[in-house]
Amino acid sequence: MLRFPNAKINLGLNIVEKRSDGFHNIETIFYPIPLTDGLEIADSNKETIYNFSSSGIPIKIDDKDNIVCKAFDLLYRKYNIPSTNIHLHKNIPFGAGLGGGSSDAAFMIKMLNEKYKLELSFDEMKNLAGQLGSDCPFFIANKPVFAEGKGDVFSEILIDLSGYHILLVKPNIHISTPEAYSNVTPSQPNKSLKELITEPIQNWKNLIFNDFENSIFPNHPKLENIKNDLYNMGAVYASMSGSGSSLFGIFKDEPMCPEIWSEYFCWKSRL
Ligand SMILES: C[C@@](CO)(OP(=O)(O)O)[C@H](O)COP(=O)(O)OP(=O)(O)OC[C@H]1O[C@@H](n2ccc(N)nc2=O)[C@H](O)[C@@H]1O
Ligand SMILES: Nc1ncnc2c1ncn2[C@@H]1O[C@H](COP(=O)(O)OP(=O)(O)O)[C@@H](O)[C@H]1O
To answer: Keywords on this record (predicted)?
Structure first.
């Protein structure tokens, strides 16, 4: 079974307050984008519970620390799952705020559910995903949503960027999510993002922001420059995604990836 776990972008991100469990309550809009990894599972005749291999962008961690193996392990301990070969082709940059690892984990849960007919409900899969990371539950339904709590409490929103183009840029800066959260000053927004997002996209530039930019841009001016460049290139809306370090621009017409970014990960698509 082969599937293609996709990335997400955050359209606005308010860090509202620090919680007693050490996490933060946030407000954000998750929007899926068609930048994907490849994830394959197949029957195995080996003794081990799984055999993991990977290709594409190298992640220098032990197999057991790879979140797809953690997802497999979580389900293996609860359900009757036979030994499985797992292959991950990594194409989504990590440390980028694109939720690539979280998506891989959520897709692993959905794929095991389908392949081994576990008959898990959406809520059961979301609950399992939530044990692996705050971003993971979103990728179970994988539809644009307004998210609150740790980023795992969802309500529907009507937002459709089909027809727009996205240009995504990730320079050679790696930002870890825990480190990013440790540098923020939470605050209650004046107006909820859920309300602001109903404004026409042309107005978002002056209304909708990612709070992580306040703490990350001063230490990494290159990122702020890229955001400004995206606007200078004609983006209707531009922002950092999640805890960074990728930035995206939403364009009416197909943008070009400028020569100055040739050393960066640069990807564009129609939404
Ligand atoms: C910032 C966001 C925005 O979508 O995404 P990324 O930039 O990672 O893609 C998410 O909140 C990231 O979610 P995720 O990457 O799943 O984080 P987790 O593994 O659950 O948590 C890693 C660490 O980040 C901090 N954390 C995470 C989520 C949250 N709501 N509050 C937090 O304070 C905690 O210190 C936690 O130990
Ligand atoms: N399958 C995976 N894909 C990406 N990163 C993974 C994976 N498994 C574990 N990781 C670890 O998780 C960290 C964050 O991954 P990711 O979810 O892509 O972050 P972000 O959303 O912040 O870009 C990486 O630095 C990496 O060490």
So the answer is: ATP-binding, Isoprene biosynthesis, Kinase, Nucleotide-binding, Transferase
